[in-house]
Amino acid sequence: MGVRNWISGCSVWRVRWGGVSAALGRRAAAGLLAVVVVAAGTGCDALSDRGSDSRPPTSAKATNPPPGLPAAFTAGQRLNWSACPAPSAAQGGGDAPGGDWECATMKAPLDYRRPGRRAIDVALIRKRATGPERKRIGSLVLNFGGPGVSGVMGLPEFAGDYASLGQRYDLVSFDPRGVGGTIPVNCGEKAYEGSDVCEKHSGRLLPYVGTAQTARDLDLMRYLLGDQKLNYFGVSYGTELGGVYAHLFPKNVGRLVLEAPVDPTQNLLQENISQVKAVQSAFDRFARHCADAYDDCPTGSDPEQADQRVIELLDKLNKTSAATGGDEKLDGDLAAHAISNYLDLGKEGWGPLVKALREVMEQGTGSKLMKKAYDHAPGARALPRAGTAAHSELTGGNGTSALVAITCADSNLRPGYTRAEQWIKETEAASPVFGEAWSLGVYLCYDWPFHGERATPDVSADGAPAILVVANTGDPTTPYAGAGHMVSELGEKVGVLLTVRAEGHGSYPQNQCAGRTVDTYLLDGTLPARDTTCS
Questions:
Q1: Of 240, 358, 346, nearest to 297 (Cα)?
Q2: pLDDT tens figures, 362-412
Q3: Model confidence over 206-249: pLDDT tens digits?
Q4: How much is the pLDDT for 38?
Q5: C-alpha torsion angle, residues 28, 34, 39, 43 (rounded to 10)
Q6: pLDDT score for 418
Q7: How far apart are CA 459 and CA 309, in angstroms?
Q8: Is 126 buried (19+), middle (13-18) or exposed (0-12) by CB count in 10 A?
Q9: In the predicted model, what is the mean pLDDT of residues 271-288?
Q10: Helix 195-202 to helix 399-410 angle, to the nearest 10 degrees?
Q11: At what angle are helices 332-344 and 350-358 packed, to 10 degrees?
Q12: What DSSP designation does 360 have?
């Protein structure tokens, strides 16, 4: 999250609702994995995974299994790690990640309230600690955001960012429920086709893909990895998952880092409006820089002129889309999200954004904006944004379907038509440049076939040890004010805020001060003083 990270901006899907297009998420839906029946008391053979681990296991063994589960999931289950296969279509396809990576499948209850009925497969990936075994701390589980992002795909891509941590931790990630290799929801053959298609293909799964269920998977994962406590690094939406875990299992919290945190006090509408305001502010800062640094700045000499020029550009593109050198053309909605994605890169994205705007304004082509309309550079994380229903998607995977399904499983916000129209007006009024493109997020769960869990996530974690929350003051995706709310909601003496005076969505490891502070905490257990600020 993003915040429900349809407002966490990176990758973008094209969407349609009643003939109106907007930005959605990333990647096409894929086939549904079968749900496996497991009776309470099933033996370990029934839950065993294919493959074997050729290297000796670590000596760590947890003694605190998740309560209330049949023994088949805990004492009767062992993670059998083996060479990773090529990613499935639901994960996005491509080549296997290589010899440093191991994959396994964890069995978990489909419904934790009735754990003896059915089991699901949870896809895991890891890279073992590269340093001496005697210095190994345990496993560090990572979630890169979303919802809808495959950790099995993401960890090999982003592992270089965590190389210092990977010397003493096994780096571990996974596909959350509904995503990729873990009961992937299917909302269309080649693209997201709407809630009715989701219900048709994945109706029996949709009530069970919410964040609270995935947090329970995390605790089972922790136990099977051999860790008495969960060490975890969550980015954007991953901070919501981490916060919910801390709420459910405060005594099992180890060293938790929540970077670019969502605001747990806001519902979907409030989050959408907060984000579009933050994107507008980030654009204003970019426009001032552009005017100061370039004699021929494409956005003009001040932010007010920049707003007018870009509004005119977006209107023009919505009337006549621009060629991109590919099969798809650039319209105003895609251009708005591409600009936001450049802003998510921080100041490193400002120069490329100038070039992208020059191209479309002066040459009438949108190839540079289109490159950022659907995805980010690796350092910015792949965090999707959603609207309502996908029109077309550039790459494989079921990220769009998963994003909508997880968001709507979590949120109970179901606006009627009249209220939705009012919310659209409020969103449009929040930003002259981006409000229109963001406004269709109001319809995200408009006709979802199941009730959501609650308006806002509960992250109160009384009894947990201190948790490090890291936030940029210029974050255009998860606004800085939400970090203070996350710290407060975690509870007195639990949340510790590290403020980073920087642009962009996320700061680790790019900001050296933030990188050192986070590493010191995760490697040595030493927290920064409260209210520490990095520049």
A1: 358
A2: 999 999 999 998 643 222 222 233 332 222 232 348 888 999 999 999 999
A3: 999 999 999 999 999 999 999 999 999 999 999 999 999 999 99
A4: 31
A5: -100
A6: 87
A7: 42
A8: buried
A9: 96
A10: 90
A11: 160
A12: I
Q: Which residues contact 284 (CB under 8 A, 6 or more apart)?
A: 303, 306
Q: What DSSP letter does each residue of 364-433 carry, written as one string?
A: -B-HHHHHHHS---GGG---EE--S-BS--SS-SSHHHHHHHHHHHHB-----HHHHHHHHHHHHHH-TT
What would the pLDDT profile of 295-305 be if each residue is shown by its tens digit? 999 999 988 99
Place of tokens 């136990």: 223
Residue linked to tokens 């004492």:
75
- Residue 152: other Cβ atoms inside 10 A: 24
Specify whether the CB–CB gap between 239 and 264 falls below 8 A. Answer: no
Distance CA(257)–CA(29), nearest Å, equals: 31
Give dist(CA 347, CA 175) in Å, integer: 31
Q: How far apart, in whole angstroms, are the C-alpha atoms of residue 528 and residue 520?
A: 9
Distances (CA, A) of 400 to 40, 210, 245, 281, 394: 34, 15, 24, 27, 11
Q: How far apart are CA 260 and CA 436, in angstroms?
A: 25
Kindly report, residue by residue over 70-82, the tens digit of the pLDDT: 999 999 999 999 9
Query: Does 21 have pLDDT greater than 80?
Result: no
